[in-house]
């Protein structure tokens, strides 16, 4: 090849005339029939892992946030005339206040537009923001061994000023007001700042109570709910006795209840998935990369969110 043409070719690439991305684009949802037959469909919708509006994945395989995927799935179900009901399968300790509230809002808006029954089934963990999301459902059930509750708000905060002093590191900030760096980890919070933070927590906690009081199956008044909503967790049987859920059953029984609510005898149970997230049954986890937070550990997904979490509807044992 003539060296002049070689220089032209190099300049062509350096100028960005051709852009080749090594990151595969996010594919649209595909539908998978998990079980059943007939024309009607019941969508099995997963809320699995820590709830957040933050994008997931790595720089080489970025995925939409849980909030984004829930909205996308609900839009697909809304446009499908054969979808007669939705079962929200929950296995989550909760997450950010905003993420939990948006998913709740999207489920409520979907019910209003689509006018189909929406039930929630807590299969392992449905605490704090997980229970907040479940409160949008017409009926909440839980597996016999599930854990739920933890109604409340937490603010995750670390103070590292003592460690910095030992290391001889000094932090200095120019600020327009004395509260501008409120809750910075680089100095101890003042009593006034702690009071301000508690005011925010009280407001978000009040929002949580209103959501639970407004849920379709609720029979509790505010006083009774406030007694229950001190942050503690409950077994499925305890939650049923406390009127926080409507039933204790397995997922297949929850599906039978939903068929009755949708007034259909037969239905195909379907899920939406992207390439690489195979589901073979109603108990398969659609989130192949989701790390479940168990009762005794935070898990990597929570650790990734810690710097951005702030005020959270999250059970953090």
TrEMBL record:
Q: Which GO terms describe its biological process?
A: proteolysis
What are the record keywords, sorted?
Answer: Hydrolase, Protease, Serine protease
| CDD domains recorded | S49_Sppa_N_C
Domain Peptidase S49 residues, every copy: 112-265
Q: Name one GO molecular function term.
A: serine-type peptidase activity
Q: Which InterPro entries match?
A: ClpP/crotonase-like_dom_sf, Pept_S49_SppA, Peptidase_S49, S49_SppA_C
Q: Which SUPFAM superfamilies match?
A: ClpP/crotonase
Entry keyword Protease: yes
| Pfam families assigned | Peptidase_S49 (PF01343)
Q: Which family does it belong to?
A: Belongs to the peptidase S49 family.
Q: Which NCBIfam families match?
A: SppA_dom (TIGR00706)
Show the PANTHER family listed in the entry: PEPTIDASE S49, PROTEINASE IV
Annotated protein name in UniProt: Signal peptide peptidase SppA
Species of origin reads Geomesophilobacter sediminis
């Amino acid at each position: 090849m003539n060296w002049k043409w070689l220089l032209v070719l190099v300049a062509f690439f350096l100028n960005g005339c051709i852009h080749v991305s090594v990151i595969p684009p996010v594919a649209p949802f595909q539908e998978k029939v998990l079980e059943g037959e007939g024309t009607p469909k019941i969508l099995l919708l997963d809320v699995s892992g820590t709830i957040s509006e933050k994008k997931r994945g790595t720089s080489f395989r970025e995925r939409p946030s849980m909030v984004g995927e829930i909205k996308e799935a609900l839009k697909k179900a809304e446009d499908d005339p054969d979808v007669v009901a939705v079962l929200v399968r929950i296995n989550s300790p909760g997450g950010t206040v905003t993420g939990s509230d948006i998913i709740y809002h999207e489920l409520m808006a979907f019910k209003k537009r689509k006018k189909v029954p929406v039930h929630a089934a807590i299969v392992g963990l449905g605490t704090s923001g997980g229970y907040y999301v479940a409160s949008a459902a017409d009926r909440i059930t839980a597996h016999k061994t599930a854990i739920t509750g933890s109604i409340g708000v937490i603010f995750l905060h670390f103070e590292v000023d003592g460690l910095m002093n030992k290391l001889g590191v000094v932090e200095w900030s120019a600020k327009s007001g004395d509260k501008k760096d409120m809750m910075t980890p680089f100095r101890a919070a003042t009593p006034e700042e702690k009071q301000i933070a508690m005011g925010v927590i009280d407001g978000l906690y009040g929002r949580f109570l209103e959501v639970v009081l407004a849920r379709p199956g609720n029979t509790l008044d505010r006083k009774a709910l406030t007694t229950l909503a001190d942050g503690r967790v409950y077994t499925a049987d305890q939650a049923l006795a406390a009127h926080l859920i409507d039933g204790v059953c397995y997922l297949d029984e929850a599906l039978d209840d939903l068929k009755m609510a949708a007034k259909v005898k037969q239905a195909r149970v379907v899920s939406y998935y992207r390439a690489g997230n195979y589901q073979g049954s109603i108990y398969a986890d659609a989130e192949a990369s989701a790390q479940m937070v168990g009762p005794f550990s935070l898990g990597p997904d929570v650790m990734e969110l810690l710097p951005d979490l702030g005020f959270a509807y999250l059970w953090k044992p």
